[in-house]
Amino acid sequence: MSKKTVLLIPRKLSKNSEARAAEDYDVRLNPEDRLYSPEELLEKCQGVDAILPCHSELFTSDLVSRLPDRVKIIANHSVGVDHCDLAALQARGIVVTNTPEVLSDATAEIAMLLLLGAARRASEGDGMVRTGKWAHWSPSFMVGTQVTSKRIGIVGMGRVGQVMARRARGFDMEVHYNNRNRLPPDLEQGAIYHEDVDKLLAVSDFLSLHCPATPETTGLLSEEKLKLLPDGAIVVNTARGALIDEAALIAALRSGKISAAGLDVFAHEPGGNPEFASLSNIFMLPHIGSATFETRDAMGFRALDNLDAFFSGKEPRDRVA
Ligand code: DGY
Questions:
Q1: What spacing in Å lies between the alpha carbon of 134 and ligand 1's midpoint?
Q2: Tens digit of pLDDT for each residue in 186-228?
Q3: Can you list the domains of the chain with their CATH numbers?
Q4: Do residues 52 and 299 make contact, with C-beta atoms less than 8 angstroms apart?
């Protein structure tokens, strides 16, 4: 690559990532970290060879059709690529990469936090102490669901799902999973495979979603599927909000069919779902699965590795289109 290669970075990345990018590229940064509208994004793409966006920049077919010919690669700072119309980008001959592996530990940490927080009523308890409303204690006070030795169902046994399975084993949980393909025994590590997601749901005291949002997985956790879970099951989602029918989940949380949920992702982001806020049995975070100092550097570096490879005439390691 050369300093003549113009790189647009539409969101504020880690200091180390931006410093490395500036060493090797003519960078266009966004120091205020303001989310660009689609029109602004298009404007910023003028005179640019490469873009290093996050999942917050939507590359719809319309936007892709209007990208300048000079743009050759979109090196995403995310593992998920559902914000990119891959077919449209492929048709334009624009290479697309993502950042797998480097965020698996951080995301599984947040999934475990949500699982524990939902089970043990963390947001209710924290709110009570914080607001000075804690005025009572008894053996029947704030009783939650024990995690140890329960069954966890993991949908999507990719890299994050596999780390989640390891963390769950630390709590002596029995791991069940559904995945497009069964894993080899060394990766499966005794986890029980269910080819049929319905069968997985039936044994999931805890259900944790780790699959990408695709047309096939959108609305995966529908009203019908929620009914298949054991009564009082707990649902955790750190993947994408699109996987869950939020209205159906709210109904299930109200009826007690689902006893609690831990959510880091929502159908509408930023903002989430205001209806969730009225329910005390949801523990929510604002899409921060990969938000650790270490992982932010690793994601930035991985995206830059992909760019470096591309502009040195090599195949980028994480090419998805
Ligand atoms: C990802 O990498 O897909 C995370 O959701 C953060 O963007």
A1: 37
A2: 999 999 999 999 999 999 999 999 999 999 999 999 999 999 9
A3: 6-102+293-311 (3.40.50.720), 104-284 (3.40.50.720)
A4: no
